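Quick illustration for those who missed Monday's session on complexes.
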Amino acid sequence: MNRIYLDHAATTPVRPEVAERFAELLASAYGNPSSIHGTGRDARRILDESRTVIARSIGAEPNEIIFTGGGTESDNLAIFGTAAARKDEGRHIITSNVEHHGVMNAVRKLETEGFSVTWLPVDQNGSVSPEDVRAALRDDTILVTIMTGNNEVGTIQPIGEIGKILKGHRATFHTDAVQAYGEIPLDVDRLGVDLLSASAHKINGPKGTGFLYQRSGTKLSPSSAGGEQERKRRAGTENVPAIAAFARAAEIAGETMEERSEEYGMFKRLFASAFMGEGIEFRINAAEAETLPHILNISFPGTDIEQLLVNLDLEGIAVSSGSACTAGSIDPSHVLVAMYGEGAPELRNSVRFSFGYGLEGKDIRDAAAATAAVVRRLTRLQKGENNDSN
Ligand SMILES: *Cc1c(COP(=O)(O)O)cnc(C)c1O
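Prediction with pyridoxal-5'-phosphate bound:
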């Protein structure tokens, strides 16, 4: 069966150029970058070059990049590292109701440890209001953490505006940019952020590698104890081949960003026109917000998410409900709950299509036609018309 992978927000295939770089260095660049001999220095040089490439991709300095084991670890380091470093200055944190679990569960943990947390609501399009951030600020606020682009519905948050508001406040500003990095231009000064998380496997790089940007002078305690790697901020021998592959993926993402954005825009239009042409009832979630180019989240009234996912999978179409399913059952997405409220039908009938490397217009047309057929079948079942004999 010809499979069509439309779940690039969950993870992406590794690009051939990136895999090539990874394989080459896995064999050759085995040195420990902390060793003083030539083999170590070779690895150090590759690490330094990669750091420069990554730093440049967000307008940062190389010494502001901490390589980590992925997006979740970067989020955890940002949140726990800030809390540990600044807990004597205050114990208030501001975040939103639509964060990734890497942020949400870290903040929840701090909440159980005595930190006070303001969970900001979002509107029907998943947007956080900068004015809500301003209103929530207190003298003891030490951390504001708001994601750049939502991984489920794609909403791009007004990070630059929030950054301006925070200019006059001493709180550390962190953004989880894992889903946005490589998809839209990001510049840490324009955004006004102090900490920014990204992950390699969301941009056609290897899994288990990411970075945290830390603006010079921003207080952060290391979350692991060990050696003095990454300027004592993240202990453990660096994964040089994976980091170099990440840098290669970041370069390609930067070079292809504009054309991909246009292409994904066309994919979105292809989907919408196919559903309209087939007379399928659908509603695009976060339709009025500015969204990430590669994410399209659609609600199909009269369908059920579990049936949708199973039937689309049978057609070879890989999509997602946004939230991962745990132990085979799908929890309602906290993002959709935040947008629509508990019990809203969208919680049970929304599907995320996410685009990326390797997809062509034909795949999208095929996927849209197959989705339309599945939705038609499911809504007919729902209405009890399955026994029609004509
Ligand atoms: C995927 C994702 C993460 C987690 O990154 P990992 O590298 O898988 O740990 C964090 N935040 C967002 C917004 C994501 O999309």
